[in-house]
Amino acid sequence: MTANAILQIVLFAAAVTLTVKPLGAYMAAVFEGRRTVLSPVFAPVERLLYRAAGLNPSTEQHWTAYALAMLAFSVAGLVLLYAILRLQAYLPFNPQGLPNVPADLAFNTAVSFVTNTNWQSYAGETTLSYFSQMVGLTMHNFVSAATGIALAIALIRGFARRSAKTVGNFWVDLVRATLYVLLPLALVMALVLIGQGVPQNFSAYTAVTTLEGLKQTLAQGPVASQEAIKMIGTNGGGFFNANSAHPFENPTAITNFIELWSILAISAALTHTFGRMVGNTRQGWAIFAVMGLLWLGGQAVCSVAEYQPSVKLAALHVDQTPNAQQAGGNMEGKEVRFGIVNSTLWAVATTDASNGSVNAMHDSFTPLGGLVPMFNIELGEIVFGGVGSGLYGMLLFAILAMFVAGLMVGRTPEYLGKKLEAREVKMAILAILVTPLATLIPAAIASVTPAGLAGLNNAGPHGFSEILYAFSSAAGNNGSAFAGLTANTTFYNLTLAVAMLLGRFLWIVPMLAVAGSLAAKKIVPASEGTFPTTGPLFVGLLTGVVLIVGGLTFFPALALGPLAEHFAMHAGALY
Amino acid sequence: MKTSHVIRDAAFGAIKKLHPRAMVKNPVMFVVEIVAALTTILFVRDIALGRGSFGFALQINLWLWFTVLFANFAEALAEGRGKARAASLRATKVDMTAKKLADQKLKLWRKVPAWELERGDLVLVETGELIPSDGEVVEGVASVDESAITGESAPVIRESGGDRSAVTGGTRVLSDTIVVRITATQGSTFLDRMIALVEGAERQKTPNEIALNILLAGLTLIFVFAVATIPAFAAYAGGRISVLVLVALFVTLIPTTIGALLSAIGIAGMDRLVRFNVLAMSGRAVEAAGDVDTLLLDKTGTITLGNRQATAFLPLPGVDERDLADAAQLASISDETPEGRSIVVLAKEKYGIRGRDVGHAHFVPFSAQTRLSGIDLDGITIRKGAVDAVLAWAGPAADADALKSIADTIAKQGGTPLAVARDGILLGVIHLKDIVKGGIRERFAALRQMGIRTVMITGDNPLTAAAIAAESGVDDFLAQATPETKLKLIRDEQAKGKLVAMCGDGTNDAPALAQADVGVAMNTGTMAAREAGNMVDLDSDPTKLIEIVEIGKQLLMTRGALTTFSIANDVAKYFAIIPAMFLAFYPQLQALNVMGLHSPESAILSAIIFNALIIIALIPLALKGVTYRPIGAAALLTRNLFLYGLGGVVVPFLGIKLIDVAITAIGLV
Prior knowledge:
- The complex is a heterodimer of chains A (about 575) and B (about 675).
- Chain A has about 575 residues and is mostly helical.
- Chain A has helices at about 5-30, 40-55, 65-85, 105-115, 125, 130-160, 170-195, 225-230, 255-275, 280-305, 310-315, 340-350, 365-380, 390-410, 420-450, 450-455, 460-475, 490-520, 535-570, and strands at about 205-210, 215-220, 415, 420.
- Chain A is globular.
- In chain B, helix 11 (about 285-290) crosses helix 22.
């Protein structure tokens, strides 16, 4: 790795860390219903919305009601989006005259955007009208992200409240997350992106003659508005097929840095919101530290792997050292303008968070470099993770870690003063089971059925990695693709959709059950016999538990994919 | 019982426990049994068809069964330790008869078998007879040999009224005759419960154990997904994995170590308490003991020595100190209480005042109503007692305030003032001092380190209580405690989310004992107290509460430590089996064989042998429990993570390698 690379990694980490406190504190104020700087603007809108919906914002819900509201909202959104996609030919803002989306692809896409996954079996510019992109997808980019944040807040309330029956009101949390958090951030970011040259129009595609004298069609549209929420809401679904590698989505070094920051910004800041709402900001920083450590580990491995000279080229005595003239290392599948470190920064951040946007092709990473994004997703999308979903996922892991740690200090386990009993353990483990279930089972089916194998473009362990990555991405609600897999088939559209649904909702329901159960408990005051969850020991413990659970679950599969490929590469075989 | 017998019985027990109905209670080991049965069927089929590798398959099958058997053995061994005691307890139960009274006054009785007795029946028990069932002495005093229950051979006094009225079925009256009202029906007597407890027959899973079982079942399911998908993934690469190898991988990955030892740990925890002469009525109580935040301790007998001692005579101005000592000695000469005797002793030591013949005097014993005692001798009346009581007895006096100020000084120093007056004239005050037990300060410091707050309960006034609290190092105190204030204190603590432990013996302790999360009743106490508590201390030693807490913590820690160890073990097992499994089609994965194991067969076999043997190796730890040190939660966790987490990663690497070398050397593979 070069000094420049290390500097860029440090700058990125600093940018994310710096916004944790202000953004986190702001969100705590929003969800505790306090007045914020934006209240004068949004409070009237908020009141209007409640009045229109006939909703009393001070009515709170039991966790089951909260869960039902969330499910009902998601199902309605799913139906709406499916309908838009199936009918887009008859709907406005379709200058290219794109036809209706086929049923399986529409279903896959609808599931994908409702679950905050943004897996794209399609190429945006050749499949979706501007109406579908804006009203269908962008709207879901907002509300699926807001849903995630709302759910995390419900779990935080579970920890913060004592002997309470309710965990909040889903509709209120949804509205507040959208109005006060996502909308202003997306608005500012979209304007900056427009300033940097990202298109925002409803024009038909432009045909141009390139310098080489060839004809090219320049796809465009309302890109900036979708790009902003795609990044800030950990959605990741690109306007264009090339996603953030496309110059219209990510034109400059500045947009690259801002977009990178926005991948982790809200998820990282939510740790501070958590700390504030449970009354001890150090609790939030401890969780942030766990996520930061896991990010750093992945970033280090991925960057080092990508800076490795190619084994085959080295045998031919090709100079592969990074210098002013060349990036060195593995540049296959990477944008020259981004180079290695900005590609790995993006790859690691986008898979730590369940963002799923890409600015380089993960498929072309070295085997170990590609293992990192895949493993990040398989950890359960909890290293910062999706907005909200990352925090609630990590807190469920914290419950498991504290259960074992609590036993080891000779007390009935507790976390943040809440006793962890059979119900919490049961629900946490049920949720955590979803990742292996929704990843491994469909991946196993795909690797032995003709329909699954038909989509492969590569042989050997690399082909297997493509299948494994696809289902990891779907189950983890990430949405990035390893590429190299033709996923727009009935088989993959349906299996991936199922994996996305399981990965989202089978996590959420037990998680909300935990929230409800915790809220109903008393808070045990801390004593000398209580293991403190703010120190390095807790950080180390939780990091270890996350790595061990993920590692033990996926080691056999990873051995047959990236690891087999890695060792084969050193033996001279490429796939 | 001899050790060899215990082990032999446990070995038989292990086989008996293979019954699925017994196994199903332990989800992890039940899964192992199912897959062992499955591979055995496949093995038999392969032999019949003459295919497969006989030696390797046989060994894997055997070790799978050994894994199950070792788990059962651990449980049987833990149970076996209580069995011997249960057998001797049961022996006392056989053929007990009772003299059931038809009329208490006339002592008319008829002989009935003990099992016919019902609650409320009155029975007569005479010298040399066994008390037929639990009850309350309603008439008489007797010395009772309770060694059958407590193991303590010195007889104890049981008498009607007061706090020593409870008698236990199966104990023997050594002298005198008592009438007992039966308070327990047969089958639910203390002896019955004790037998059930030490045998582990009534053992129910405790809340933490249930939660842990769920966690282990969840981990097992994760490994079902991880292992069940391997054949498909391997098929993609053109490989085939035999069911045998998959089962071997699966069994080594699921948390068999903790799964195998979990119930043994629970039984052993109860057994440790029983050996400690404490009977816990439920496992839940033992766990709760580990969680206790607040410990209520009676001052007398726990923090201070049972008896207060006179240390000084403090006369009023104008009164000769010797005169005061003389009057005090005279008032106490027939006072057989330890305090009374200590006054006589002090008078003799300080002023050489000897005992006198006061045969014709009238001695006034202390009573709770008058709070006075004294003597009427040759027209002189002397009274000693609580300051206000003596003041009231003496009537208005000019030096009452002087007396009170002396008394206050004593109280502030933690002493008890005992005023003395003669013929209505105040003489002075005797300083009775509580003697704080040696080493108690250190114990409280240790409890603080555990995160436990100690509260001293005393009937003393706040001043005295504060002084003793300061001297003993207790965190807080409740002075002038009554049953109501005690109960309120417990409720207040519980409302703050704290778990409270206390011990008590009297009937008026019963509500508080029942309210406390851990209530330890003294065996010498009343039946009401014993029924209200969830533990009974057979030695009636209130300081034991501290050890009970430690045993509770140890129980949880042992579970946590072995869970961590069990999961940490998986890393090495993966590195043993994964390369071995995939070598046939991905030879490059040999690079993952970091232990350099001899062959795929030896690697798989070594892993499964290690997995089975580690159960046996950890049985002593499971039975003995992980050592608890009061060093604070963070330090404790660091220590245990290092020992059982890091140790759990390293040990199997070494163990599997050693087994691999050994089985290769003797040609098993």
